[in-house]
Amino acid sequence: MTIGSKIAAARRRMGWTQEKLADKLEVTFQAVSSWERDETLPETKNLIGLARILNTSLDALIDEKQRDWELRVPGFDPDRQYTFVKTRAQSLGLNQTLAALPLMKAKHEGQFRKSMVAPVPYRAHPLTMACHALAMGIEEDDVLAALLLHDVVEDTPTKPEELPVNDRVRQAVRLVSYNTYYSADKRRPGEADEKELKKRIKPEYYANIGKDPLAALVKCIDRCNNLSCMADGFTREKQAVYVTETERWVLPLLDVVMTVPEWSNACWLLRYQITSLLETFKRVL
Fold it and tell me: Which residue of 67, 88, 103, 225 lies most exposed, with the fewest beta carbons within 10 A?
């Protein structure tokens, strides 16, 4: 597979025209067309730009070996996941989880996770987290309810006090929701957007999560799922940032999770899963 055909395939995967790719690189669309027809090769600076913009690597662009891989949507089945969690919750008498399920589904309706292949219904994320917990042997109502609702406050116009759960779960959801920190921490002059504010309050955010074992467990399972999916929805730059952030801020939370004896086995599994993903991405990136 030639460099030109790889550029064309990656561009189409992004849903871009040659003109749009040219605009992003600040070159002419004739240059892009020439590359894709293998009439000319991009200069080094343009190869670097192409790798960054097309969310790939220089190795992937330059290596002419054929890869007979088809990109597929990760194997989520939110309807089956929903039924699975609901059935387990009914058999275990987990009333908060049963109340959280329809609320989570309704609140995240119309929201999707980023994907290079096709949009994934957002509800697949909290449902996968709940299935993950159950697979690790965690069957606690507070944990499953918190996992299902962990993004409802941050991503929808919902307040913690509106959640149909107890104060422990509400507090865990509040702690993992960045937007609950904004009202008490107003944007400073020069902070142009939410991203800059988020960066400044990050130490406070993780410090508060570290005071609450339930919030720490939710954050670790959340990060494990996000790491496993980030190659499908994150740019390479964001993947690298995510790896660094996970090592600095998230892995220490596992020590907090370990303080709860009933979660020790799950903590061991999470540490293995997260560190394995981190080491894989560090080598690929």
Answer: 67
